[in-house]
Protein 1
Amino acid sequence: MDDKNVTQQETKTIVDSGNTIQKTTALETTSSFPRQVLISRITQYVFGVLLVLLALRFVLGVLGANPLSGFASFITGVTGPFTAPFYGLFGQSTSNGVGHLEIYTLVAMAVYALVAWGIAKAVTINRA
């Protein structure tokens, strides 16, 4: 894949000893964000947002946030589909008095971080 784009074309007219010469020059620039790098960065951003949401879910659970409050309910609802494959991996979540420790959320965070890293590396593997 060629990452170069013609960004500007310049034409000069030169008159020399009665002869008219036209010289056309195409100025070429290299794109600072090749497609692979852009895909890699978007992947890292999307998975980064997911990891932050999962971290919020974990912290809210450990601190014993009211699951009926709007914010806690929103975080639990958004992250539920992403933690569902890991639910029950280690049995039920353990309670430490007020809050509960969701080990499966930590496992989900680790798995999604590895997936994001793998996708980002796979997309940019042929880059020097």
Protein 2
Amino acid sequence: MKYLALVFLLICPTLAQDDHPIDVQFNKDVDKNGSTHGMVAAYANALKSWDNELNKHYEKLMAGLDAAGKANLKDSQRAWIVYRDKEIHNIVEYYAKVEGTMFRTISAAAKTNLTKNRALSLSYMADFVEIRKK
């Protein structure tokens, strides 16, 4: 049964994380200042928090893997960083050419979601490794 719940979380991460503390704080920040500038700042804060969360789960996952798993994860993370950097460049270039201040917010959201999704993915893998060991 616990594996079924984990599979559900892997398939539906957005459903499983609606109340994540980082998202809750983001919503509070936007409620305080819903201007474009305020929303961009809220996304910047959320990005920092998701990056910290990503690093926490990366370390947790590394601790639960054997040598081959650690090497695979390290390679995967390096490849993801290259992908992330190229995708951020693409996002910035695309939205810089579109008129309207709302696209600054959309760009910030897209950049934040890259790291959020990776953090959640590593979190699920780390949880699965922990469950397997029990």
Protein 3
Amino acid sequence: MNSLKNSALELLAKAGTLLLLGSSAAAIVKLAKRYQRFEVVGDSMEPTLSAGDRLLIRRGAVPAEGSLIVFPDPRDQDHLLIKRAQRVSAGEVVAVGDNPIASTDSRHFGLVAVSDLIGVALLKYSPSASVRRL
């Protein structure tokens, strides 16, 4: 009887471990879908960001005024842009580069729909000497 009881407890413990691992994996996958990596191209965000900087983006986040936003270029949907949210209304945002001379932004293509945003930049993680929260 004790042998049967021990076997049942051992089986239950293994099932619990598998359940825990499965739910942890599901949580990690869900968390990973909320974030996206992004590499800065060009100098439109100088001096805040430089070409080659790598960022972590929170997908689907609603921007606040002053936050850095990533969205598809209205002129070429395959190309992503990063700009600063200057004015945010209920459904649209004015997107401007920190370096206006080198930036193509809302002055050229108009307002960006909040629904079109990929997300908001949270963290600059590379180069490692300049890691910081954005």
Protein 4
Amino acid sequence: MMGVLRVMVRKGRWLFDYFDEIEREIEEAFEELFYGRPMWDSSTGRLEPLTEVTETLDKIVVTMDLPLVRKENIHLTIEEDYLKLEAPLERTIRFERWGIIPRHCEFKSFYKIVELPAKVNPEEAKARFKNGVLSVELPKIVRGHKIPVE
């Protein structure tokens, strides 16, 4: 019996703690492998919205899915090369997972910084929010002047 206890306790930690830690590391590795990086941060209670960035000759359009968000609670910061979104949820979303040790986390807001593929003019940006979808049009900064050839 003492041999079993020695195996279960190592440096003051139970063997189950090691299994839980290994499981967490495997989950994070698979998440990063398949999705690049997690779309949430359980330590801050933030979710990252699904985002699409499209670019045309004269503008960049950033579209984000923001369910459970009110238009008046959306905070956007736009600079020449990035867009930052912060938006609290109307209600907390709780995720629960049961395993060896029950775990849960609560999400309270959306947060994302989008690096833009080209420089934009923040003063001329336009944003629309309809049915939980935010669309931000960002006109590009035109560098250069087209000269007609005769």
